[in-house]
DNA sequence: CACCCAGTGGGAAACGTTACCCATGGGCGC
DNA sequence: GCGCCCATGGGTAACGTTTCCCACTGGGTG
């Protein structure tokens, strides 16, 4: 069977004709612009309803705004990002802005491609979540369109930032484990080689925070960092390496830099025939639904993704309204959520 | 510090001037259209590279195409959807099309809003994943823009569909459990009240398939369905209800309609002090990363999300190329992935 | 030698919307 | 009573691209 013929779209001209006014008048009503009397408003709105008119965003973008916010997500699988997204959509849902997501496809290349695509599609503003791009590129992006960077430290006059204090989060974990009597607390980090990103990326800050906190607790000698990656497989490899350490070199607690990493670590520990938390404690980061899941019950750090998203959306709206206001950095504090994968150190 | 002044975007006019040709010529080169000599092509391409020109999708959309595909995802949290998305982006990545996601925000209302937003933003085609909308609405959407519906049964001349055979999937689970000696196999389903959707939604088909398979195995007497919802909490409630059954009414195996449901069920079973799979077997559906996670190791049904996505993208490209070709229905077969949450029935 | 056609290039009008500015008319201050 | 200003409405030119069609060239054909 052949599909039915597509109908022509209702345009502003149709509305104007139907309401017996000019297109300019309709446009004014649409944008709540100055210069439309209440009667005019009513007449136009009725015509809009009767015809089922909806403005064409692309055409709007040519002169004015598209009323669209683009969000670049580096990895849809990471269960932390939906929280951020919720905060964004929630803040935007009673504005006239619509959120569209660009799937970052992992990797700097794919991320750049998606970001360009969002710009080319006339987004009024961009929220980049944990971007890998260089600062120079971020500045370029921000010069093309109002931009908020989420989850990265380091500031620029060109864009606003919202981030959680990862150093503080790491300190919370180390403090918690130390209070439970652990001394040999190891950390699985995401390997970062690019020197310019080194200080800005959350993973580097967490590793840094871990080292600082260990020293603060007089555990400098016990600092033990394994570099893999923030993936389940990275956690698995990292934990395997830690478990190979002999006797008093083997850690009694593992601080994984992300919940997915903790997942991999738990898998490796289970495979090794060890028990959590009796033989070894494990803590993650992000407080994903996975961590909250009863049978897992992973101690984790809550980043308040919803709050991050809310702030990002708010800042973006502000910046769209005034591109010249000075840039803002919002830093939020994480909280520790102790669960059943951490307990008193053995012996 | 004030952000730097934004630069004007490079347009096709700039390219034309720089290459000393007409804008028409540049446009032809951009679209590989007929009527541009090799020399012209080379000259224009060089100008494009030198100026770093990228076409403005919104402006293109006004006359031609935007080279953008919109994907409506009802729930980013469901770990099954990223697989589908991967299949889509993978198929599209060496075309000139870009994928943008519309977050469905759960619920028919939000879904409708996002779908409209995608249409208004000039998408060349739409992929709707497991939409809740009525058939009438789907037909309307499809009449506005080429559309592929994923994960819903029932066909229409207006759109193509790609779906997994849920009846078959349910049969795989029941067959597996029956072969392990289970007789009292219960099912936790997602309650569906809307009669028009009843036959089309995957959840209904799974419940149906469960009943058919139970009868086929001579277990008609043991059919036991609890209606909650496809959420973790729904699984928790459903399992609690099942565990309250006394003696020989209590099931020895639970077929949860989705992995998230199985998560909730596992939580309830653990809380009740029972052991999986010794006391009770549990199977899920979707084969998410959660199911594959070692310490969980949930028996599940794999829907080949990647294949679904691939097919959806392929069909959509075909339909964009020819809006008049008859509609196509692709049905894929699921496979069972037995893991450690299912074992021989007790006694 | 007139004619035609294929190949190539460009001019101009769309596409749907908004920004800018001007025209009109009535009320108000002086 | 005269001029001024504000409130209201509309005309028109953008915005960046594609599509439609016409013009020109040169070579082959009748």
List the helices and strands and how they pair.
The structure is a homodimer of 347-residue chains.
Chain A: H1 12-19, H2 23-30, H3 38-51, H4 57-63, E1 68-73, H5 81-92, E2 98-103, H6 108-120, E3 125-129, H7 135-144, E4 147-150, E5 160-164, H8 166-179, E6 185-190, H9 195-198, H10 202-216, E7 224-228, H11 232-243, E8 253-256, H12 259-271, E9 281-283, H13 289-292, E10 300-302, H14 305-321, E11 329-332, E12 335-337
Parallel strand pairs in A: 1-2, 1-3, 3-4, 4-5, 5-11, 6-7, 6-8, 8-9
Antiparallel strand pairs in A: 10-12
Helix pairs in contact in A: 1-2, 1-3, 5-14, 8-10, 11-12
The structure holds a DNA duplex (30 and 30 nucleotides).
List keywords for this structure.
homodimer; 347 residues; alpha/beta; 434 Repressor (Amino-terminal Domain); Rossmann fold; 3 domains; six-stranded parallel sheet; 12 strands; 44% helix; 16% strand; DNA-binding; LacI family transcriptional regulator (chains A, B); transcription (chains A, B); DNA-binding (chains A, B); HTH_LacI (chains A, B); transcription regulation (chains A, B)
